[in-house]
Amino acid sequence: MAVGKARACIQPGAAEHRDLSACCRHSIRIHFFAPNIPGYHKLIFELNYQDGRVEYESPHFSGKAAALRLDSLLARLGDNRYEPLREVVIKMLALSIWRERPDVKKFGPPSDWSARRASVILSMARANRSNRCSATISACVMRRSGSRTTHIMADRRYEAAFETHTAMILLRRQWQQLLEFLFPPETDTWLAVFRIGMGLQVVVYALFLRSDWHSLFSTTGKGLVSRELGEAIASFDSPLIPKLGWLVAFRPACRPRRRNSPFHCLGLFALHGSAVCCWDFSVARRRSLPGFFTSARLRAVDCLHTARTIS
Amino acid sequence: MTMALFYLMLSPLPDRYSVDSRLVKTKVKDPRLLGFWRRVLQVHLCFVYFSEAWQNFSAAVGGTGPISGDR
User: Fold this and answer.
1) Are residues A202 and B36, on separate chains, in Cβ contact within 8 Å?
2) Are the C-beta atoms of residues A34 and A27 closer than 8 Å to each other?
3) Does the distance separating the beta carbons of A185 and B32 come in below 8 Å?
4) Is there a contact between B5 and A198 if contact means CB atoms under 8 Å apart?
């Protein structure tokens, strides 16, 4: 019944505008596709070939559904509110025709048309095979003579879908701008400058603190925090905690006969490196410097010496 | 300096001027990844300077924090 009512309302001169609106609102509510309103816009390209020939071409379609979509698209092309979108759509339509005819030199409007004109410039790279030359595309959007009622109905029918599509385009554009802001292509020059600058700053910082480091970790027994003191405190927790004194006591036993040999220097360097690492960890395990190498849970139950490094 | 060292730790090293990139031929890093870390550092610095300026401003005005609407 609804189908019959909807079909009845598209008969020419069958009803007034008020009845037609009510009928289409009803058909949309019951998810019945709205009546096929004949197109009142037409897009025609004038193809100027290199040998002087001139042809007129319209966008192609295959199938009734595609024809209906193209009809609605052309209907929206006549609207001035969506100029960027109209430009893109006209470019796409012209490009589809241009790919079929690569020898076309220029797209232009028919000379005897005086309708609204949407001129867009399409600059193509010469290297691409399908786009051999640059061309100016002028698309004329003609308004056919039809009933005003039909125009209003068509606008109402496609308004919601078109605004949703425009919102999606804007959203996608905003997302693209966000990605371009977060991921701009850069070289690694800034990283090299940053790394070298930070290295210099750390070195200068350590040099200025040299005297404080000596007074803090002095091995003469006069320093604020000496190695013997730290090892003694660590021994209270557990005698099995590795200490720097073990390495120092182990070094004379493995001393080679030739003291100036490269292996001797290398061995001393490795021994000192491991000793420094152990010293740092033994200092960090002490109660005076908790927090970074110990977990909060184990510190809460007073198990510092068995705490893992990071948790 | 701590913040800068933290971001240096996360940055896609080595760069082309480092010693290990000259000794061992490494692949060129993604330029967008490099740009992303530079942008993160810039945004963080913007927050740092803004918060410092806001703190100084609020201290200069009343010393009780940000200005509310009824003041």
Assistant:
1) no
2) yes
3) yes
4) yes
- pLDDT at residue A53, rounded to an integer: 78
Contact present, A119 and A138 (Cβ < 8 Å): yes
Q: Which residues of A touch B45 (CB under 8 A)?
A: none
Ranges A197-211, A249-263, A289-303, most confident: A197-211
Instruction: Say how far apart CA A134 and CA A136 lie, in whole Å.
Output: 7
* Rg from Cα positions in chain A: 41
**Most confidently predicted of A213-217, A258-262, B12-16:** B12-16
- Single-letter amino acid code for the residue at B11: S
Cβ contact A49:A97 at 8 Å:
no
Both structure tokens of A178: 């966000």
Closest CA to A137 of A101, A103, A108, A105: A108
Nearest alpha-carbon partner for A104 in A165, A31, A51: A51
- Provide the shortest C-alpha distance from residue A10 to chain B (in Å): 56
Would you give the end-to-end CA distance of chain B in angstroms? 37
CA distance A41 to A116: 11
The pTM score is 0.38
Structure tokens at A217: 């970790």
Nearest to A159 by CA among A229, A211, A82: A82
For residue A81, what pLDDT is reported?
Answer: 66
Spatial separation of the C-alpha atoms in residues A47 and A58, rounded to whole Å: 10
